[in-house]
Amino acid sequence: MGLKLSIWENAARIRAELRIGAAVVLVRGQAGVLAGAAESLTAERLEDFRAAGPTDMVITSRRATTLKARAYDGDVARIILTPDFDLGRVRATADPAKDLESPLKGPYQTRRDGDAGLHRAAVRLAKQAQLLPAALVAALPSRREAEALARENGLSILDTDALLAAEAEAIGMRPVSAARVPLEASAASRVHVFRPDDGSEEHYAIEIGAPKRSEPVLARLHSACFTGDVLGSLKCDCGPQLRAALAAMAAEGAGVLLYLNQEGRGIGLANKMRAYSLQDQGFDTVEANHRLGFEDDERDFRIGATILRRLGFRSVRLLTNNPRKIGMMSNSGLQVAERVPLKVGENPLNAAYLATKASKSGHLL
Ligand SMILES: Nc1nc2c(ncn2[C@@H]2O[C@H](COP(=O)(O)OP(=O)(O)OP(=O)(O)O)[C@@H](O)[C@H]2O)c(=O)[nH]1
Ligand SMILES: [Zn+2]
Q1: pLDDT one-digit tens code per residue, 264-316
Q2: Residue nearest to atom 12 of ligand 1 (CA)
Q3: Per the structure, how many domains does the chain have?
Q4: Same domain, residue pair 249 and 115
Q5: 268 C-alpha to ligand 2 centroid (Å)
Q6: Is pLDDT at 347 greater than 80 in this prediction?
Q7: 222 labeled binding residue
Q8: Which ligand 1 atom sits closest to the C-alpha of 235?
Q9: Residues with Cβ < 8 Å from 304, sequence gap 6 or more?
Q10: Same domain flag for 143 and 197
Q11: Backbone dihedral region of 273: left (phi > 0), alpha (psi from -120 to 50 degrees) or beta?
């Protein structure tokens, strides 16, 4: 039977497998590797990697900077897994929790020859699985042998160039369901649920009143913050921003708030809590992300524009202090007719966080 998984089906399955510690096969051109996430690695699986072929641990250049490892591959570094490199050292290399306690983890020998494309893809998949951005990669002799290894062991196999090509386009969003939900801010509210074609998290649109599609709509792109939105955390300004945005829309009688499930600026709640632990050790919000191996902001801002367009909007008055959100909207073909500042919720416990966003991430004051 010619039943073939689509690239999205395959990538979604591989993300789930990486989370539970399975090894997968990645191929590109004539090359193939066995790959797994460092965070979910076990001692037994580490031996499987060593038996499969010469194994590297791949980290991002952000993490490499903290570890003083040379990154010859631009945004990633391939650490050669010498025989003494055990599971404890893999964990300590991936996870910065104990960096200050035991700063001397190296020296690391990093690889500079050969192509790092499949290694880069492995780290990217670990990030998408919301794990620490670090992977184990064992080189296999050829694509043909990689395909045979996958077939014989029932492993998932992914062509990483095909995934990159698919991701270059904005991911499609399908409206799934919608219903009236009267809110404290406004009784005239509807919640719409959108499901992305790539099998990742669903996102929500909260429509207040009946905004005209022919005029710029008062809009907010809100990224999920479990701690701020739900628990009322004082470490950030998300909860007050969420409520102030809904209140502003209610006051005008119309607006649309997108609730985007991009927790922790796209790194997920587990990694955000790791970042918070680092902040308790004295690092600011940007430094903490970098020590973990992430960029300051890992969100895909095209998602918001895609959903707004699906809802029929062409132009927005955007509630934000973040110039990147404005840039993304314009690049995605949505006109930003006006920026509406949203400065609420400053308190003594988040003042330094807000100041860092202004000084390092270009947030407008
Ligand atoms: N990684 C990380 N994420 C954080 C931290 N504090 C808050 N967040 C996340 O940051 C996001 C908040 O972003 P938003 O308020 O939508 O956007 P913004 O970039 O601040 O821009 P505007 O609020 O529009 O000006 C949420 O996903 C939070 O979970 C932190 O210290 N580290
Ligand atoms: Zn927050």
Answers
A1: 999 999 999 999 999 999 999 999 999 999 999 999 989 999 999 999 999 99
A2: 223
A3: 2
A4: no
A5: 12
A6: yes
A7: yes
A8: 6
A9: 221, 258, 260, 325, 328, 329
A10: no
A11: alpha
Q: Which atom of ligand 1 is nearest to the CA of 220?
A: 24
Give the number of residues written for the chain: 365
Reference 361, options 300, 298, 267, 305; nearest CA is 298
Strands 217-223 and 254-260: parallel
Residue nearest to atom 15 of ligand 1 (CA): 238
Q: What is the pTM for the complete model shown?
A: 0.95
Specify whether 76 is located in the same domain as 134: yes
Q: Is the CB of 264 under 6 A from ligand 1?
A: yes
Q: Give nearest CA residue, ligand 1 atom 6.
A: 236
Q: Tell me if 106 is assigned to some domain.
A: yes
Contact 77, 71 (CB under 8 A): yes
Is the CB–ligand 1 distance for residue 275 below 6 Å? yes
Task: For residue 132, name the pLDDT band (cuts at 50, 70, 90).
Answer: very high
In a domain, 279, yes or no: no
Nearest ligand to the CA of 230 is 2
For residue 249, the domain's CATH number is 3.40.50.10990
Does ligand 1 have an atom closer than 6 angstroms to the CB of 321?
yes
- Which residues constitute the domain of residue 74? 7-167
At 1, the pLDDT band (50, 70, 90 cuts) reads: low
Catalytic residue among 297, 300, 309, 324: 297
Identify the three-state secondary structure at position 96. Answer: helix
Active-site residue flag, 299: yes
Q: Which atom of ligand 1 is nearest to the CA of 319?
A: 24
Q: What is the CATH number of the domain that holds 88?
A: 3.90.870.10
The reply to whether 95 belongs to the active site is no
Is 274 part of any domain? no
CA angle, 115 then 116 then 118, to 5°: 110
Position 292 in a domain:
no
